[in-house]
């Protein structure tokens, strides 16, 4: 097993930053779309990391609270360029969504109309379906090398899509089954011995490479000693300057807590956030959480960014003596800060341990099981995203153990269906680059909104 010997010699930091910036502009479609974009850029195009290496990192990120795609960006950035690379990748992953949602929140408060921007993004959403579909096909083809693993992926998909089993339980069960299968039939979980696929040159970080960083308690202690104050000091400053009852302090404390319990992605926690924001803190009026979620779904970056919309409206209406616009911007930035700083800490502290444990056959088998389940998770996210993109509404079907989210067929959006079909042709048949496809579909979205 080879060792990644020095922290900054894999990819020039300028080249990596440019790549992460391009990725950040394409992170539409929730986790499925974001994982698809990174897989295409980092694994297929740049050949910076091997497919199994990429999925190993993703499996670890799936175990963490918070947005798994953003944490995956931090992990791979750290592998390529050390701490600086992880910080750049993680910040750039969030930045376009932060700016876009900040603008949309201001337009919502000031004008109550975001038709132009939402029309632009409405063209992007169907295009992302093509990217997600491509990712599911590629990842499944490479990760599911045995029928047992295919069975795990299918079981994970059914558990999530049909029976609404909580995400953490699906991941935990996949890990346990992977460990058990690895003990009983290790050849199933082992990397298959087969000819190298003609995907291009050998990746810079091969499937067997290890990062050099030593996972020591001293290193972890230093990171936590720096990171935890950085995370919480802004909340303490808000408390000192505005008091315990201000929107700034309440939002800082509340969203610091939610950052630690968002297992299973944003959807798993948004109902709780909506209830507290509307009924307990009165930051939003009933129904506004749905509008904020719609805006977040059409902008790049993690869906959990909807908390920025919540903070913006709450502080605008309770500015604690500041200008409402100033208060709203400060609250948005504070909420974003306390939501995402823990993501960096989870990776910088935990990734070196995960790197060293890659040689552990039992853990490797467990993560292989989780990786198989991740294919089912991505497929489930893709179905959820497709339903939200192609249909104006859906309904929940609950009968005994069955819990299905079904589209209302009569609310099919013809424009979205046509744009999605065009995106499929451009992606699979014409093999257009992602940005070119997204740009074309964005223009089609504008045309559909204002010309038809």
Automatic annotation (TrEMBL):
It is found in: Cell membrane. Keywords: Cell membrane, Membrane, Transmembrane, Transmembrane helix. It is a multi-pass membrane protein. NCBIfam families: 2A51. Belongs to the chromate ion transporter (CHR) (TC 2.A.51) family. The keyword Cell membrane applies. The chain crosses the membrane at residues 87-109, 116-137, 149-181, 220-241, 253-273, 294-316, 328-351, 363-386, 406-428. This is Chromate transporter.
């Amino acid at each position: 097993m080879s060792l990644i010997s020095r922290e900054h010699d894999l990819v020039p930091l300028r080249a990596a930053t440019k790549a992460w910036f391009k990725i950040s502009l394409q992170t539409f479609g929730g986790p499925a779309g974001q994982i698809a974009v990174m897989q295409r850029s980092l694994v297929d195009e740049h050949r910076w990391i091997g497919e199994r290496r990429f999925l190993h990192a993703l499996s670890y990120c799936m175990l963490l609270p918070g947005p798994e795609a953003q944490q995956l960006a931090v992990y791979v950035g750290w592998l390529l360029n050390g701490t600086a690379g992880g910080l750049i990748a993680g910040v750039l992953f969030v930045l376009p969504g932060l700016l876009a949602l900040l603008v949309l929140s201001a337009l919502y408060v000031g004008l109550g109309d975001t038709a132009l921007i939402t029309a632009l993004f409405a063209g992007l959403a169907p295009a992302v379906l093509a990217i997600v579909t491509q990712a599911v096909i590629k990842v499944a083809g490479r990760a599911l090398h045995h029928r047992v693993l295919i069975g795990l992926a299918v079981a994970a998909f059914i558990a999530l899509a049909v029976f609404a089993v909580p995400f953490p339980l699906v991941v935990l069960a996949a890990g346990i089954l992977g460990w058990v299968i690895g003990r009983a039939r290790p050849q199933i979980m082992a990397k298959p011995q087969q000819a190298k696929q003609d995907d291009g040159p050998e990746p810079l970080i091969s499937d067997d490479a290890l990062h050099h960083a030593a996972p020591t308690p001293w290193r972890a202690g230093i990171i936590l000693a720096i990171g935890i104050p950085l995370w919480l000091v802004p909340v303490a400053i808000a408390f000192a300057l505005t008091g315990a009852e201000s929107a700034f302090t309440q939002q800082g404390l509340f969203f610091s807590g939610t950052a630690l319990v968002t297992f299973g992605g944003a959807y798993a926690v948004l109902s709780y956030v909506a209830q507290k924001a509307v009924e307990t803190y009165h930051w939003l009026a009933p129904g506004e959480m749905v509008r904020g979620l719609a805006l977040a779904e059409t902008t790049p970056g993690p869906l959990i960014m909807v908390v920025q919309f919540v903070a913006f409206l709450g502080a605008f209406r309770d500015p604690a003596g500041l200008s409402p616009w100033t208060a709203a911007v400060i609250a948005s930035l504070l909420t974003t800060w306390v939501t995402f700083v823990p993501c960096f800490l989870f990776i910088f502290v935990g990734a070196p341990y995960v790197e060293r444990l890659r040689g552990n056959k039992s853990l490797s088998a467990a993560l292989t099981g989780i990786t198989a389940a991740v294919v089912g998770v991505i497929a489930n996210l893709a179905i959820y995203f497709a339903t939200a993109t192609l249909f104006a509404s859906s309904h929940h079907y609950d009968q005994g153990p069955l819990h299905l989210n079904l589209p209302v067929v009569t609310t099919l959006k013809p424009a979205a269906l046509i744009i999605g079909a065009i995106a499929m042709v451009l992606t699979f048949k014409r093999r257009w680059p992602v940005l070119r496809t997204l740009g074309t579909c964005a223009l089609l979205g504008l045309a559909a909104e204002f010309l038809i």
